[in-house]
Amino acid sequence: MIAIKLWKETVKCDLRGNTQFTWNPTTCARFYKKAAAFVLRAVGKHSPQLAQAVVQCGALESLVICLEDFDPGVKEAAAWALGYIARHNSELSQAVVDAGAVPLLVLCIQEPEIALKRIAASTLSDISKHSPELAQTVVDAGAIAHLAQMILNPDAKLKRQVLSALSQIAKHSVDLAELVVEAEIFPVVLTCLKDSDEYVKKNGATLIREIAKHTPELSQFIVNAGGVAAVIDCIGSCRGTVRLPGIMMLGYVAAHSENLSMAVIVSKGIPPLCTCLVEEQEDHIKAAAAWALGQIGRHTPEHARAVAVANVLPTLLSMYMDTHSSEDLQLKTKRALKNILQKCTYLPALEPLLQDAPPNIMKHIVGQFSKVLPHDSKARRLFVTTGGLKKVQEIKAEPGSLLQEYINTINNCFPEEIVRNFILQLQVPILKRERRLLFTLLWI
C-alpha cells in the first residue's frame, strides 16, 4: 500500500533527523504521518478483512512508533487508526497488543491534550472488549488507575470513553470487576448518572451494570454506595436507549437474592420499570423492563405482591398476547409472568387475568387460587362476590389436565350448590339459544 510505504519512509527519515532538505523535515514528516494514519484508519474501519490487510502490510509497527512522537496530533492519529483496527475482533486486537501499543496508549491518556486522552481511552476500550485476556493486558499496563482519575473530568466526550473503557474491562470476570471497584470509582461514578450528556449517563449506568451482574457481594456494595437509588433516578430522567443499561442493572441486582431484590423495591424501583414498559416504543427496551420486573417478583410472595400491586400484570399479559410484539418481548413477558405468578398470593391482582389469559398462563393463575382459597375464608367470600368463581367455571380445560385439577380444587372449597348454580347460569343462555334455533327450524 502506497500510504504505508510513504509512512515507513517518513518515519525512518524523521527518526534519522535528516535535514538535507530546504523545508523543515520535522514539520513535513508530521503532516505525512497524520495523513497516512488517516488513510489507514479510513481503510481499516470498514471490515475485519480490510483491517487485516493493513496489519499484513506491516503498518502496526509504524503506528506504534508514532505513539511515541513528540507531536500530540501524530499520537492521536496513530491511536485512532489502532482503535479502528482493534475494534473488529480479538485476533486484530491481539495483533495491536503484540505490537506493543498498550503501554504507550496508557501513557497517552496521561498527556495533557484532551483529544489525545479521548482517542487513547477509546482504543483501550476497543482492545479490552473482546476477551478477559485482552482486558487483563490493559489492566497490567496500569490503565485502571489513570482511567478512574478522569471520571470527573469536565469534558463529556472524554468521560464517555473513560466509562466505556472501564465497562469493557469490568464485564469479563469477577476479578476484573473487583479491580475496577478497588480503584475507588464509587461513589464518584454515580455523579455521571446526573450528567447533562446522555451518553455519559448511559455509559455510567453500563459500568455499574457490568459490575453488579457478577456477584451478590458486588451488587450489595453498589446498594450500600447508593447506586440503586441513583440508577432509578436516572431511569426516570431519561428516555429511549439511555434507560436500557439502568433497567438491566436493576434486574441483575434483584436477581441475586431476596434482600437485594427488596432493596430495589424499597428504593421505589418498580414504578419506573412499569413506566418504561408502557412508555417506550422499542420492543427490546420493553423486554428488558419485563425481565427486570420478573427478577424482582420471583423470590417470595412479598416480592411478587410488590410487583402485582403496581398493576403491571395485565400489561405484561397484553404484550405477551400481542401478535405485533417481537419474539424476544413475548418470551420475556411470558417468563416474567410465570416468575411472578408462581409466587403471587395477592388474589385481587390475579382475578382480572382470569378473563383473557391463554391456557399456558391460566394454569399458573388458577394454580395460585387453588393454593390460597382452601386456607382463607375471607378470600373465598370475596372470590364469590367479585365474580371470580363464575369466571373459573367459564374456563375450558382439558379433562385430566393440571388446569382442570386446579379448577376442581377451587370448586371443592365451596358448597356444591353454589358451584352448581354458577354452572347453571352459564348453561341457561346456551339453552335459550338452542330453543330459539329449534323454534326457527320448526317454522322453516
Walk me through the structure.
This protein is 73% helix and 0% strand. It is an all-alpha fold and 444 residues long. It has three domains: 1-168, Leucine-rich Repeat Variant; 186-346, Leucine-rich Repeat Variant, CATH 1.25.10; 356-444, no CATH class. The radius of gyration is 31 Å and the shape is elongated. The N and C termini lie far apart (92 Å).
Please give the largest β-sheet. none
Q: Give me the CATH architecture of the largest domain, please.
A: Alpha Horseshoe
Which segments are poorly predicted (pLDDT under 50) over 5 or more consecutive residues? 10-28, 428-444
The CATH class designation of the largest domain is Mainly Alpha
Q: What name is given to the CATH topology of the largest domain?
A: Leucine-rich Repeat Variant
CATH fourth-tier homologous superfamily of the largest domain: Leucine-rich Repeat Variant
Taken in chain order, the helices and strands follow as HHHHHHHHHHHHHHHHHHHHHHHHHHHH
Share in β-strands: under 5%
Total of DSSP H or I helical runs spanning 4+ residues: 28
- The helix content, as a percent range, equals over 70%
User: What count of structural domains?
Assistant: 3
Query: What shape does the CA trace take?
Result: elongated
Structural class designation:
mainly alpha
CA radius of gyration: 31 Å
DSSP, total strands = 0
What is the rounded distance between the termini? 92 Å
- Average per-residue pLDDT, rounded, comes to 86
Protein name: Sperm associated antigen 6
GO molecular function, one term: microtubule binding
Organism: Cairina moschata
InterPro entries: ARM-like, ARM-type_fold, Armadillo
